[in-house]
Design a protein that fits this description.
Elements lengths: L1 H8 L2 H15 L4 H15 L1 H15 L11 H11 L3 H20 L7 H12 L6 H10 L2 H21 L6 H14 L4 H9 L7 H9 L6 H16 L11 E5 L10 H4 L6 E5 H7 L4 H7 L8 H4 L9 H18 L6
Antiparallel strand pairs: 1-2
Helix pairs in contact: 2-3, 2-5, 3-4, 3-6, 4-8, 7-9, 8-10, 9-11, 10-11, 12-18, 13-18
Amino acid sequence: MSDVKNILDLSIADLVKNRICAQAAKQNKSVEDVASVIDRISDDIGGGKFQSFLLHYCWANGEEDVPTPRKKLMDWYGKRINQESDVKIFLDDLEKQALQHYVNYVNPNKCADSRKKNVFTYLDALGATRCYPLILASERYLLRKDFLAVCEAIEILTFRHSTILQKDAKNLEGVFYGLIKDIKQKKPIKEIIKIIKKQDSMKIDDQFRLALNEFSPVNHKVARYVLWKIEEYITGKKQAPLDWDSLTLEHILAEKLKWVEREEYLERLGNLTLLSAPMNEEAANKPFIEKKRDHYVKEKRITITKNLAKFADFTKDEIISRQKELAEYAVKIWNNTAI
């Protein structure tokens, strides 16, 4: 009974490590060296995320008609490892995909390529992990410009499908897996993008707009992402880029003040803006009039915050009207013409 429990206690990461080490021993390779490589991958990615990587690596490299079920993952790795005449070839590829690529998805700040870093930061903000197998495969098979085009299309689809329309993100797994097969078969990049554009969530602008009008971001990362992209759209590319890491999320009508229908409207997009950290600390929970006079008008580089000066006062009605204005920008930003 204890042996069965010990096996059940092993994670997929432990099982894969054990299988690779066992194969290394059969091939007279250094088991210690093999184990240290796997431990390094796990440490750099993060223990829990390493298990996700193993699933995503399988889907990015599998030849099956449908994604390998999670419960069959060890079967896939066992077969793949046993088929390799030199286990080091398999391990080298696993390490490359993990430490040159996947680590950038889970920790975008490690990415040296600024364009890729931006895309990975946005996908991370959206919690978009189901696309990682497709991104892994795209990095292996596509030119950089085509890779970026696919990533940016995925970002727009994910935002519309999962973040705003709140459709089940799992529904995209089949779409992404199909695109992996298309990429491996060297289908033209225009065809890959066209498939993304044809997804239902990309075609229902009226529903997208209505959902945006009542949108409350699920967390601060998502809120910053949306406001950041709208700010970029309004200011255009001529302005020097804002520093994503230095921006904080500001509630225009403060969290700790009492106001009409506060519970319903506090986290609405229309009540949120971007503010530099020092200004946000100073603004704290002041009334709107004081924030506008002492802080918002002085925020030289953030247009959506400076524009708050046009409001004589700010109430639930202003939240609603401002959110509709932001929604119109969003419809122009996250659509098929942007891909």
